[in-house]
Amino acid sequence: MDVIELFPRLHLLRFPVGQAYLWHDDGELTLVDAGPPGSGAPIAEAVTALGMHPRDVRRIVLTHFHEDHAGGAAEFAVLSGAEVLVHRLDAPFVRGEAPGPQPVFEEWERPLHEQAVRLLPAGDVIRPREVTEVSDGDVLDLGGGARIVHVPGHTHGSIALHLPRHGVLFTGDTVAASPVDGAVMPGVFNLDRAQVLAACLRLAGLDPDVACFGHGAPVTAQAGRALRRSAHGWPA
């Protein structure tokens, strides 16, 4: 796992598949997504290397239930005591009460998905003992007030997390950056592409300065402009 400082308050945690983010408030941390299974201990080590204690992470906000984003949540919650938050529609899948629905693949996505699956650790996912369910419009006590934005399409319960005071937007997998040229694009492996495109336009309307994606390099300046420019060029 690579740890990259984007700003003093914000670090990127990059895994073989997917990425997570650490947001720093004064005296406490928030983890946005938790990486694949097996990520709990590496995240705890990263927090310690940054001069904090895992117990300083008060909450883990999951943008959706997929294994590369939620797989490490229970492990790290045990190490830190952090609260796990997820949208109510994805909560049953995070808790392991039912299998989550499979994406509706475009043909060109299938080999990409097979490649990603090969990079995920083998074995069962440890499930969190408890999760806190959130909904669209909920405001969390971090970053001066962080708003939950429900953006269904990638999964039914996908969310973004918007910190308007800081101009930061965590998009989850609704939006991504191309690994080839860094171009902003809709996420892949979706349940409903039309919903994803509508969600991308909604997120562009938030006009963030910084956009942090579930996959690909973040946009660290004028992100709203990049989102709007790309959203209007995406084919349906």
Notes on the protein architecture:
The protein has 236 residues and is of the alpha/beta class. The protein is 25% helix and 27% strand. The chain is built from seven helices and 14 strands. It has helices spanning 40-49, 67-70, 73-80, 91-95, 109-119, 193-204, 223-231; strands at 2-7, 10-14, 19-25, 28-32, 57-61, 83-87, 132-134, 139-140, 146-150, 159-163, 168-172, 175-177, 184-186, 210-213. The strands form three sheets. A seven-stranded mixed beta sheet has the order 1-2-3-4-5-6-7. The chain has a five-stranded mixed beta sheet with strand order 8-9-10-11-14, with no helix packed on it. It has a two-stranded antiparallel ribbon with strand order 12-13. Helix 1 packs across helix 3 and helix 6 (193-204) runs antiparallel to helix 7. The longest helix is centred in the C-terminal third of the chain and has 12 residues, at 193-204. The protein is globular, with a radius of gyration of 16 Å. The termini are far apart. The model has no long low-confidence stretch (mean pLDDT 94).
